[in-house]
Amino acid sequence: MDYSNRELADRLAAEYALGTLRGGARRRLQQLLPAHPTLAAAVWAWEARVHTLATPLVELQPRPQVWQQLQARLFGAPPRWWQRLGLWRGLSGLAVTAALALVVLQLQPPVAQPPLVVVLERTPDGNSLLPAGFVASVSADGRALVLKPLGLAQVAEGRALELWVVPDQAAPRSLGLVSGRDATTVLRGEILRGAKALAVSLEPAGGSPTGAPTGPIVSVGAI
């Protein structure tokens, strides 16, 4: 590498003086300086420039007339209320404070909402099947429901229990088959949309063939 090349020497010297030349490359350049005057001169020149930039500046307070002349040149008249530096600093401080408060609120976890619990009591038609009905727990976001029997439901072979959402002024919506022995979990969006009650009916083994309850309602609970 020709270190007498001024363009190459200047580039290496700039990286060295600015501190971007590091590690082995920096140590190698330091070893080369005594034998390469062009490179050494370039390093000296760049270090002088960087040293000048690092020299602290003396703060000077301009005379009031200077500010008045500057205001007149920029705005053509004495500064109005919206041109006052103090006001803009105050407004900027308020804006920063508001932004920080918003960030803090966004970082804080939302207050946990308790699940909705619905007790489905047995009906006269369900006396022979359910000893005590069901209890349903619906998550706060309405996307998960857990239905647990309060006892052991005796379902005959070829029959099944099906859970329904009963809206105020619409046909019941099926949430699928549920167990009479263990907890059943239902996952879907807006489970209780428009609902006024939950109900369990006795259906054929594969569920209602019509999309509506066909067997007796064995358990129901108001929301």
From TrEMBL:
<protein>
    <submittedName>
        <fullName>Anti-sigma factor</fullName>
    </submittedName>
</protein>
